[in-house]
Amino acid sequence: MFMKYLVGYIATGLAFAVIDSVWLRSMYTRLYQPEIGEMMMKNGFRLGPAVIFYLLYILGMMIFAVGPALLTGKWQTAIVWGALLGFFCYMTYDLTNYATLKVWSTKVTVLDVDYHHGNGTQQIFYERDDVQFVSLHGDPARAYPYFTGYIDEVGSGKGRGSTLNVPLAARTDDDSYMKSLERACESIKKFGPSMIIVSLGLDTFITDPISDLALTTPGYDRCGALVGALGLPTVVLQEGGYDVNALGVNVQSWLHGLARAS
Ligand SMILES: [Zn+2]
Question: Ligand 1 centre and the CA of 244: distance in Å?
Answer without folding.
Answer: 13
